[in-house]
Amino acid sequence: MGRDHLLALRPWESPETTSWQRLPMNAVDRRSGALSLDGSWHFQLLPSPTGASGEWTLADVPGVWTMQSRGDLPQYTNVRMPFADVPPHTPAANPTGVYERSVDIPAEWAGRRIVLQVGAAESVLLVHVNGRPVGISKDSHLAAEFDLTAVVRPGDPATVRFTVVKWSDASHIEDQDQWWHAGITRSVLLYATDPLYLADVTVRAPRDGRLLVDCKVRDTAGPLPEGWYVTAALDGQLLAQDTEFDRLNAEDMRVSDFYGEARLRTVVRDVRPWTAETPELYELAVRLHRADGSIADSSHHRVGFRDVEIVGRDLLVNGERVFIRGANRHDFHPLTGRTVTADDMRADLVVLKRFGFNAVRTAHYPNDPTLYDLADELGLYVVDEANIESHDHAHEIADDPRYLPAFVDRVSRMVLRDKNHPSIIVWSLGNESDYGANHDAAAGWVRRHDPTRPIQYEGAAKIDWADEQLASDIACPMYAPIEECVAHALSGRQTKPLIQCEYSHAMGNSNGTLADTWAAIESTPGLQGGFIWEFWDHGILQRVNDGRPAGRGGVGLYGNGVTAPGHRWAYGGDFGETIHDGAFIADGVVFPDRTPKPVMYEHREIAGPVRLTYDEGVLRIHNRQHFRGLEWLAAEWLLVGADGTTRRAPAPLPEVPPGGSAEVPLPFPPPEPSAAGETWLTLRVTTADDEAWAPLGTEVCVPQVRLAAAATDTAPEAATGPAVTLDEDALLVHPSLTSAPRLSLWRAPTDNDELGGMAARWHDWGLDALVRKVVDVREEGSRVVVLSEYATGAGPVRHEQVFTPVSGGIRIEESAELPAGLDDVARVGTVFETVPGLDVLDWYGQGPWESYPDRSTGAPVGHHSLPVDALFTPYLRPQESGGRHGVRRFTLSAPDATGLAVELGAPGQVSVNRYRAEDLAAATHHDELVPRPGCVVHLDAAHRGLGTASCGPDTSAGYLVPSGSHRWEWTLRVL
Ligand code: IPT
């Protein structure tokens, strides 16, 4: 019957009802010593909250039912709601999960206060215990606690029932760009306290060593008993009360007692400050004593002493203007959907740290509590974001008084939960929810409750970055062109730090111009960085035969971003959704199995703690950190010569203060100008010791400088070799090739090419299906000249190939004349295909990882070698991938060392893989791709940059392939 009482309230269509009988949020961690209720629960899925009961089955807690084969599957939408009903209404078909289990309440809990904690439930939680209504909660990403003392009997079993309603008024403010799921997503636990208990603990620890601990003490009986007091110890040392604040306290070592509030003020000497580079933590134990000295309750916190403040237009951490090299991160897992373990989260943050990130925005809701513990411990700055995104109905909701309680509730409860984490430097009011009075109300609450941290909210800052809005202390735009950011910083109007809340959209093969963006940030006072969108590609592991999520078993994970046969990474539409936003969910810097995408190496280099410069014969090592020296790093020199050699030498790192630099001697005698061709010097920097996020020897960055340029005046080889053979179509006949070299102007569109409109233009021009017409073939001595023409929608393209026999091979000089209308093509170059068996690529050029003209800073020039199959990058939706930039020469060889060698006249973009561009463009997922037996080889004289046009700026003009004349030259030899 009780269940019906709560249902009768229809709380899922009542935005004013944020909770009923839920305990106030607090920062006392009750996880240790609690009784876990995780595991298998009885479960049934009803068609609506009031729908008829059905069959009981079992379901995992924590876990979303949408990933547990219940018939209600994941659905992906970005901005639009998955249903048409306007706020606060919900569709009649509203899947509702009923979870039930019996719990033995420990007999020794007699006389204690018993509390149920539900880590997170999506989107409305109704709780009944022993048939009695216990409470209601909303906010899919924060815990709810309910006092069960009056409804359970220690020593007896109790029946706990959760009714979880999927769609609610709250769904309209949880319209984040992610999969829609439903269920219990975080752990459920039961704990007991003394009737006299710590209701909350607030810790403030500025970097001057002051420690301020405020405790809220309560007693279930109401009035507090006489004589209670609180003590605290830091790293085991009992803290003495600072006398200045001791007025209300009779005894030393004790704290004041004022209406259940206890305050401790003290100063810690010689404090080791916390920063993301130096995550120094102290253990604080707070104890609540009864009058007789016995301990009634205790609470443990890890304290980091640090300051965060905005001075002028700079965000300062411990007085330093730190660069924010952030990533947006969701709680995501390819097997569970939403539920993540401590190990999962640690692995996420370790990857971020290893690739140079120092900040996380918890997009777009408070993350699992463990995430913040790990950020404190590993060293990451956090922008903690409230669970508010009303994207589809943003304008109506921002000022809708019915939603006012929800805004204040969500923001305040996040702050109450997370306030003690040193890693959190900024509170965010949410995402993409327009700007209204509801935001100002929430901001007002935070300002009063926690004046120690700034607030940001993109919606408030976006109209005018300089406007002194109440709701945002930071100008935090998303996807703003860097030129606009620079112009703002130079305008004289800037009033706030400019830190982009989202930038450089990592969908598919993307993140072009990251290095240019950072060069602008670092050289423009007022610009401080941003958060890449985003960490994860949210592909769900799916069985192809029946379309079900593969689930927790994990069979089907393969590694290196690839799924095992019979599986694929599902994106929007793959679960039969009719309303969805396709592959827009796959826009992270790591694959769904957490394999880093090539952009991560680019980011690692840009963010690297060490940089090299070589100017007028002076070699300098720069410390790019804000707080640390170089003691924690080791290094090695690599001298890379065009002659194919790599020489190594130890590289003792000099003492360099943060932000400073030191001249170091050249580790090798300076190369003779041009005699030996170009010469590069690489500093391979690794961890000198085990770090919390990397074992000793982990590569941290590989900065490189050029010591000598290539000789420019090498005379072309005279014609010598055997005659060139062409077939009846005037195409080259060559024993290593199954398809002769032809002109290529197209690539399998990247997501940026698709969503930026380039792919459609290229298709309209017919670049994806060029038809070659031979215009002229003539012999000039031993040279053969072939002139052909390709019709395009913007006029004909003239292409000339001049074949010259040279010793052991053929030199091919090519030119292409692109008509003026063909002013932005994917590439201009040559494509050919090889015989099977040539499975290893050795190259001299940039690498070893994938690189493109506008994403090549992190790929040093060197002598690289990889199996052909490892060159390809399996972006979720197949597209152009696997390219290598700045390639000077390469060989493709079989195990018996036979094969072919190519020398490029000038460094070019090369790709070698098993797929033609049209194979990639035709496939929607990787399991559809059939590798060709030979290699498809592209040599590009020009290749378009990648940009980020799927959401944000396209590549810059300098990386476009212009119309007009292009010339390139290469030599093909047999090994
Ligand atoms: C913006 C969102 O904040 C983010 O959640 C994500 O959707 C991202 O873009 C794109 O993947 S919203 C966009 C309409 C600018």
UniProtKB/TrEMBL annotation:
UniProt KW Hydrolase keyword: yes
Entry keyword Hydrolase: yes
GO cellular component: beta-galactosidase complex
SUPFAM superfamilies, per the entry: (Trans)glycosidases, beta-Galactosidase/glucuronidase domain, Galactose mutarotase-like, Galactose-binding domain-like
GO biological process, one term: lactose catabolic process
InterPro entries: B-gal_small/dom_5, Bact_Beta-galactosidase, Beta-gal/glucu_dom_sf, Gal_mutarotase_sf_dom, Galactose-bd-like_sf, GH, GH-type_carb-bd, Glyco_hydro_2
E.C. designation(s): 3.2.1.23
Catalytically driven reaction(s): Hydrolysis of terminal non-reducing beta-D-galactose residues in beta-D-galactosides
Root EC class: hydrolase
GO molecular function: beta-galactosidase activity; carbohydrate binding
UniProt xrefs under Pfam families: Bgal_small_N (PF02929), Glyco_hydro_2 (PF00703), Glyco_hydro_2_C (PF02836), Glyco_hydro_2_N (PF02837), LacZ_4 (PF16353)
Ranges annotated as spanning the membrane: none
Keywords of this entry: Glycosidase, Hydrolase
Domain Beta galactosidase small chain/: 706-973
Protein family (similarity comment): Belongs to the glycosyl hydrolase 2 family.
Protein name: Beta-galactosidase
Source organism per UniProt: Streptomyces dioscori
Classification of source organism: Bacteria, Bacillati, Actinomycetota, Actinomycetes, Kitasatosporales
